[in-house]
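Re: the multi-chain job from yesterday

Posting the exact lines I submitted so nobody has to dig through the queue logs.
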Amino acid sequence: DTGVSQDPRHKITKRGQNVTFRCDPISEHNRLYWYRQTLGQGPEFLTYFQNEAQLEKSRLLSNRFSAERPKGSFSTLEIQRTEQGDSAMYLCASSLPLSSNEQFFGPGTRLTVL
Amino acid sequence: AQKITQTQPGMFVQEKEAVTLDCTYDTSDQSYGLFWYKQPSSGEMIFLIYQGSYDEQNATEGRYSLNFQKARKSANLVISASQLGDSAMYFCAMREGHNAGNNRKLIWGLGTSLAVNP
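And the result, structure tokens for all chains:
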């Protein structure tokens, strides 16, 4: 399968713990996006990368959130000192900037903070 | 600020009939793109159709068509010949910039839950 993959698919953690999610984009895609989706809502933009450069971060992304894409391939999203309000689906998407209008989404990581 | 409004929280349609899902948008940009995505209960976002603000013809993709009315700032999705597998959440989204070279973040609506009845 050559689609976008995310790991883990589900994560349950206790409040105050750190969690890290991974996203592997489609191999030739140089743009990678992170979105967060809470129950009953549409996705909210968090951040995006072109290659290894983080080009934009949402004001929603507090200091507890950090994202990296060190080699311009896979990306990680880390949440430090998790709070119950962080419970959501975290979606990753990738795209080509010049030849495609579409963002391809992965299956998401569902985070539950107890 | 950009905004997407989907006023129908839930819709029902009989199998084989057509259904229209509403989407209105607000932007001050002259150049933008509009998308529809489907999200089944499994959670994955599936791209359906795209309309650029400078595209003169309404986009069509199989059973999906986009009724683009620029002056009214609406981009309604029409699904023809509904199938049971069409039951899902449907999201309208907007991106700044018309060309794929400006493939930046998407701004999303709240979604419409569609149920197809046999």
